[in-house]
Amino acid sequence: MAGEPQHAGSGLLKSLEYRAEADSYLVQRLRRAGFVVLGRTNTPEFGSTCTTEPLAYGATHNPWNTDHSSGGSSGGSAAAVAARMVPVAHASDGGGSIRIPASECGLFGLKPSRGRISRGPQAGEGWGGASTDGCVSISVRDSAAFLDLVAGWEPGDPYTAPPPSGPYLDEVGRDPGRLRIGVRTDHVFGSMTTDPECVAAAHATADLLESLGHEVVRDANPAALGEAAFMGPFLTVLSVAMSRQVAVLEELAGRPLTPDDLEPANWASGRTGAKLSGADYLAAIEAGARLRPTHGVVVERRRWQRRVRPAADADAGRAAAPARPPARDGRDGRPRVDPCRRADPVHRPVQRDRPAGDVAAAGDER
């Protein structure tokens, strides 16, 4: 957003008092739609982790229970919506950064397909196309309306997603017919287990979907949908992206960066990326391209229209029994039954070795 602070959770950009030079196409569309932007929200440094605890701004707490995290990387946006500060907030997702905070804050979070929302004119894509813009909101309806307003191709975009057959908002409440839905509850990393409460929540959702007449396939875990083969190329792309971020920061600062300028994980990632070659990066992009058709064939052969899986685990600590958030318009803002939203969100504890912040700490979403 032109002229506004854009720190991305970075202490260095904060010290430089960096401000955005121009509106993104996304912001331009929001302005045309009549959105009133109230402020910025917190994010981990450069959106690289699944909790929102940047050293530059402190931890964003969960409005349901301030002893717990709001998730990340769009944890500031999720906290703002969960606290009913706003009905919808911008978010982005490259590895769960919409879905994780939505799960932990009891919101609806959809990661749009690559090319659905333009990243321009500042960029063509993020993280090799893995990172996409979207929002977190209180309801499926609100997210559908948001997507109708911001989706679409813009000049300079390297590709675009196929256009929808009609407005997304028109799909809300429409009878989808009988769907075949796969349920997966095993952890994406084979060395870890999914918290039993998250498994129970996924199966409760599956039970509800079955009661609505859909065909539900339990333990739908074909090998082709495993994440292991994807992680190597994905981490390569992330490391190269962080290496490029370091170069941009050095241009802005007018000097070489030191370990004190970045949080340790990002410094290490940037150092790793600097040792990789252009050929390494292209190999990672090609590996990801080979995996996508394999996943699509599996989904098509098994005729799954939807998949259900836990978005976040409670491995780091107990799940909270959240108190009610602030009332909305004098009423309880939570619908009585909505299978697209978690009724009882699971939260991760805030790491107490980080400085505590407000519920929606004053930082900058990407």
What does this 3D model show about the protein?
By secondary structure, the chain is an alpha/beta fold. The chain has ten helices and eight strands. The strands form three sheets. A three-stranded antiparallel beta sheet has the order 3-5-4, with helices on both faces. The protein has a three-stranded parallel beta sheet with strand order 7-6-8, covered by helices on one side. A two-stranded antiparallel ribbon has the order 1-2. Strand 1 and strand 2 form a beta hairpin. Helix 3 runs parallel beside helix 4 (99-105). The chain is globular, with a radius of gyration of 20 Å. The termini are close together. The relative contact order is 0.19.
- Please work out how many helical segments DSSP would assign: 10
- Cα(first) to Cα(last) distance is 10 Å
**Would you identify the regions where 5 or more consecutive residues have pLDDT less than 50?**
314-366
Biggest β-sheet strands, sense, barrel: 3 strands, antiparallel
Radius of gyration (CA) equals 20 Å
Task: Kindly state the number of beta strands.
Answer: 8
Strand content: 5-15%
* Shape category: globular
Estimate percent helicity.
25-40%
> Structural class, from secondary structure content?
alpha/beta
Order of helices and strands: HHEEHEHEEHHEHEHHHE
Overall mean pLDDT: 84
Strands of the widest sheet, in order across it, are 3-5-4
